[in-house]
Design a protein that fits this description.
This protein has one domain: RRM (RNA recognition motif) domain (Alpha-Beta Plaits, 2-Layer Sandwich). The protein is globular and about 50 Å long. A hairpin with a 2-residue loop joins strand 4 and strand 5. The two termini are 28 Å apart. With 101 residues, it is an alpha+beta fold. The longest helix has 12 residues. 17% of the residues are buried.
Length: 101
């Protein structure tokens, strides 16, 4: 973990991605889905999750999500793309986002 700058690790993870697919993946494969910085690498994501949540990470898969094309009348625009990471946790590890439990 000392290989990465502590400030950089705090900027890698943006938010947990909550969706039906993310919930299904979490239940079936012991994975958690995060929105991450567009320039984040797999080793950075792994180090950030281990440092922030004190869990052991087994695997990381990243996915670039393309921005959707949106129209307002004749004018078309494109939303900004983003990156998400599927973080696989070792057996017995768990991240609980609900505080107070």
């Amino acid at each position: 973990m000392s290989a990465f700058n502590q400030e950089r690790l705090l900027q890698v993870l943006l938010a947990p991605q909550i969706s039906e697919k993310a919930t299904r993946v979490a239940d079936k494969h012991d994975q958690v889905v995060f929105r991450v910085a567009s320039d984040a690498t797999k080793p950075e994501v792994k180090a950030a999750v281990e440092a922030l949540f004190k869990v052991e990470v087994e695997s990381v898969q990243v996915l670039n999500v393309k921005g959707k094309e949106k129209r307002r009348g004749r004018i078309t625009g494109v939303r900004k793309g983003w990156k998400k990471a599927f973080v696989g946790l070792k057996p017995g590890q768990e991240i609980n986002f609900v505080a107070g439990e």
